[in-house]
Amino acid sequence: MKVLVINCGSSSLKYQLIDSQSEEVLAKGLCERIGIEGSSVTHQKAGEGKKTEAVLMKDHTDAVKVVIEKLTDPAEGVIASLKEIDAVGHRIVHGGEKFKGSVVIDDSVLETIAECNDLAPLHNPANLIGIRSCQRVMPGVPMVAVFDTAFHQTMPGKAYLYGLPYEYYEKYKVRRYGFHGTSHDFVSKRVGELLGKDRKDLKIIVCHLGNGASVSAVDHGKSVDTSMGLTPLEGLMMGTRSGDMDPAIVGFIAEKENLTAAEVINICNKNSGVLGLSGISSDFRDLVEAAAAGNDHAQTTLEAYAYRVGKYIGAYAAAMNGVDAIVFTAGIGENNAQVRALISQYTGFLGCEIDLEKNKAAVGVEAVISTPESKVTALVVPTNEELAIARETVRLVNA
Questions:
Q1: What is the model's pLDDT at position 8?
Q2: Whole-angstrom Cα distance, residue 336 to residue 213?
Q3: What kind and span of H or E run contains 209?
């Protein structure tokens, strides 16, 4: 099967066309500034360089049409016609408590996803637009919804409930949901394969460290806790997100700066994290470079970030009453050896010892980075959420 994987944002659309048998990415790309002046598409055929061109895209239906045109173009394309696309897999950010796994999309599924819009107002409406646009352009092609939150639906009440009046959970479903579930699921499965064991026999801590970042405790194949909460703002300090903090800070800053609570939350989401703390950048490469040049503020920011990851690792080792493997993934986790080394300062008490030379060599590749004597295996495993979505799509379409 050839599976088209779609990830829609409010003004963007990422896509990959994947051959499910070889699991090769045949082509991929990004439509940007949809509905905004200056819209463009960047397309890359396997084995070739990226090509970007300005294309008018009034809405997501236009963007899907552009994607199909690129995929079927005689020069840039990889398929002869739309008929070669056997299924479409859609990334959906929030499934609330309604979806505990991926589902084939029908009208009732669309209605239920829309019911979760309040929980992810920036993401779910855009995801729905992407689905409906694909349905208009590709009527009759089976489509599957894969949810960021689904993997974490195995968390017990003691992990997902907040210390708030229970009525807010009953009325509004205020609870911890967690995100990056597709990545945490994919990576923890791969750890089992690399260690020659069934994931159901392991206790794994997954550190998904990108511009958005989260840690999860995967106990015998099930997520039992994760750092993000009702929204992706909770948990680790991230590229631009504050992560954990005293909630009273919102009211305090709102009063001092004459801002609304919503405006402060926006600052916490978009102007905080390592960007806000360092005053330099949300890109860790810039922070590492600045720290190496003697910028104490950049160094303190890196240390603060690593400290928080280390605290979550310790907490989740406690939550599972032990840990067999700690795995790093996503942009920072896969590529930034210095940040991994800083985090490893907090894993020694678990019996997890990092081999610094192996760690330096592990850039964007699968690798064990712990010493042979380490009681806990530390690994780097690149995530592949698009492949995970394609696999789920094939599984459900062929069921």
A1: 85
A2: 14
A3: strand 203-209
Contact status, residue 376 vs residue 325, Cβ threshold 8 Å: yes
The residue with tokens 């795995």 is 327
Q: Please, are residues 89 and 147 in contact by the beta-carbon 8 Å criterion?
A: no
3-class secondary-structure state, position 300: helix
The residue written with tokens 């397309």 in the block is: 43
Structure tokens at 127: 């995801």
State the pLDDT at residue 166.
98
* Candidate list 62, 106, 118, 148, residue with the active-site label: 148
Q: In 293-355, which residue ranges form alpha helices assigned H by DSSP?
A: 296-319, 330-335, 337-344
pLDDT in tens, 167-177: 999 999 999 99
Amino acid 382: pLDDT: 96
pLDDT digits (tens, 9 = 90+) for 184-213: 999 999 999 999 999 999 999 999 999 899
CA 273 vs CA 208, 227, 233, 265, 308: distances in Å:
16, 15, 10, 12, 12
Q: Where are the alpha helices (DSSP H) in 320-384?
A: 330-335, 337-344, 356-361
**CA 292 to CA 279: how far, in whole Å?**
16
Classify 273 in phi/psi space as left (phi over 0), alpha (psi -120 to 50) or beta: left
Reduced to 3 states, what is the DSSP secondary structure of residue 287?
Answer: helix
User: pLDDT tens across 215-230, in order?
Assistant: 999 999 999 999 999 9
Report the pLDDT value the prediction gives residue 118, as an integer from 0 to 100: 86
Whether 148 is catalytic is: yes
Question: CB–CB of 53/41 below 8 Å?
Answer: yes
* Other C-beta atoms lying within 10 Å of the C-beta of residue 282: 19
